[in-house]
């Protein structure tokens, strides 16, 4: 029986390994559209995918009778449906030509600023995800009832977690976009609104879990012991949801402020230094069992939410706005400005005799309806004559700039040599590809070679310690004697 279960788990794992490509592309497409404040297509895709997922499960489980493997296949097909649907929408809408310049050799440069934000963001999600998987594995040591109860609670908390998680994703996009545009007050307002939404959603989730604690267990199991254990633990989980909502929204705001390192460090210390050790002690050294693990998780999420709220309150919004503009390429750093000034000074091009035009405010609202102003806003830079132009910034300031000076600066910026040679860039970026190939090759070796050695060892094994006793003669043998 255990061998059959292991085989089923292995088949499901192989099928799920084919989901990663579709899942990653779907996440990229979702974030790509969210950064353009396009949300409705993702919602419609999710609704359609849920309907198709239910239909595929019904066909594979009840009509074709494929068992758990069929459920895994339906799950994989559902992810590919989501990915292909959003890809078709992006192609149909024509978003790519206006937002992406295509593949160039510059794509191999400046990976570290991106990875410096991506790695802590990944750790924030993975550290929180892994802790629940660890708790489920530890619950399996206690027994089947405890593991079933832990799995049920994990599913319920995951469902309630998705609601504030959606708000956190919106907070990340809104805060990051506002900071990149230099709109500090808008970023603060987005953070405050997200936090208020988190409080209301957390209270709503907690009330649902407490009021339906005696019923929710039946959605996953008919075992009375499992249902009673779930009903006993859910009130604690409702309090857990209150602080979890604050924690996830605070984490979204910190990601929008490029403070992923603080969030990752908070998750690491909160879960793996405080929560899991306390939970393991209460689970195995007391009679609390699964309830003890959730006590440890409750303590950890409480401390995380407090620490993250303090971190959000201490954010230097002006500094983060300047950093976001530098990352977005809309503002140069001080070192880049000094380099540009030195380059311009060495170019033997002077602007003596040309009077600098002062900055002026944007046009009055009653003059913004004319076509010239609309074209200026649309094109960002509109030429007045051969020497002057009007640059309209995202924060509403109109600046008179000299075309001659701008051309000189741009020419010298383009002539600036890259940080690394082409060979070194190809070598460094190729290492990532080679690492992926090596990991894939190791997986294939483990998949095919290890079972072969196990089968050979089973066939060549000699029962040395087994003593063979002579069997008693059968009735036919006795008749012959």
Automatic annotation (TrEMBL):
Belongs to the multi antimicrobial extrusion (MATE) (TC 2.A.66.1) family. GO terms for biological process: xenobiotic detoxification by transmembrane export across the plasma membrane. The keyword Protein biosynthesis does not apply. The chain crosses the membrane at residues 7-26, 38-64, 71-92, 193-212, 232-250, 262-285, 291-315, 426-450. One of its GO terms (molecular function) is antiporter activity. It comes from Eptatretus burgeri (Inshore hagfish). The keyword DNA-binding does not apply. It is found in: Membrane. InterPro entries: MATE_euk, MATE_fam. Keywords: Membrane, Transmembrane, Transmembrane helix. It is a multi-pass membrane protein. This is Multidrug and toxin extrusion protein. GO terms for cellular component: membrane. CDD domains: MATE_eukaryotic.
């Amino acid at each position: 029986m255990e061998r059959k279960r292991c085989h089923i788990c292995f088949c499901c794992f192989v099928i799920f390994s084919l989901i990663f490509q579709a899942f990653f592309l779907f996440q990229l497409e979702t974030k790509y559209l969210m950064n353009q404040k396009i949300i409705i297509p993702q919602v419609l895709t999710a609704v359609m995918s849920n309907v198709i997922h239910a239909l595929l499960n019904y066909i594979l489980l009840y009509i074709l009778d494929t068992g758990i493997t069929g459920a895994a296949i339906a799950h994989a097909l559902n992810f590919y449906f989501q990915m292909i649907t959003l890809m078709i929408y992006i192609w149909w809408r024509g978003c790519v030509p206006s937002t992406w310049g295509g593949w160039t050799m510059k794509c191999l440069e400046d990976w570290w600023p991106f990875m410096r934000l991506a790695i802590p963001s990944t750790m924030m999600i993975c550290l929180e995800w892994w802790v629940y998987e660890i708790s489920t594995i530890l619950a399996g040591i206690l027994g089947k009832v405890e593991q079933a109860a832990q799995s049920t609670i994990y599913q319920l908390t995951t469902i309630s977690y998705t609601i504030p998680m959606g708000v956190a994703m919106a907070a990340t996009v809104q805060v990051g976009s506002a900071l990149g545009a230099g709109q500090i007050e808008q970023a603060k307002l987005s953070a405050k609104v997200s936090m208020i939404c988190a409080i209301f959603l957390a209270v709503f989730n907690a009330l649902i879990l407490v009021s339906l604690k005696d019923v929710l267990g039946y959605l996953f199991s008919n075992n009375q012991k499992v249902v009673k254990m779930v009903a006993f633990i859910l009130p604690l989980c409702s309090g857990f949801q209150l602080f979890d909502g604050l924690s996830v929204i605070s984490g979204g705001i910190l990601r929008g402020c490029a403070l992923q390192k603080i969030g990752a460090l908070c998750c690491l210390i909160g879960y793996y230094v405080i929560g899991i050790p306390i939970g393991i002690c209460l689970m195995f050294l007391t009679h609390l069992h699964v309830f003890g693990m959730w006590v440890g998780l409750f303590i950890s999420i409480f401390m995380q939410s407090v620490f993250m709220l303090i971190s959000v309150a201490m954010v230097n919004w002006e500094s983060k706005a300047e950093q976001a503009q530098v990352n977005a390429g809309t503002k140069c750093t001080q070192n880049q400005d000094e380099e540009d000034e030195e380059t311009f000074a060495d170019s033997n091009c002077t602007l003596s005799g040309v009077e600098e035009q002062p900055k002026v405010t944007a046009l009055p609202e009653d003059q913004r309806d004319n076509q010239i102003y609309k074209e200026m806003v649309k094109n960002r830079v509109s030429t007045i004559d051969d020497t002057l132009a009007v640059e309209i910034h995202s924060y509403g300031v109109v600046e008179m700039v000299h075309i001659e000076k701008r051309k000189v600066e741009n020419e010298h910026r383009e002539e600036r040599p890259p940080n690394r040679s082409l060979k070194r860039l190809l070598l460094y970026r190729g290492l990532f590809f080679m690492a992926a190939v090596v990991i894939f090759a190791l997986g294939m070796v483990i998949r095919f070679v290890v079972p072969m050695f196990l089968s050979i060892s089973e066939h060549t094994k000699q029962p040395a310690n087994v003593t063979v006793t002579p069997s008693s003669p059968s009735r036919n043998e006795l008749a012959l004697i």
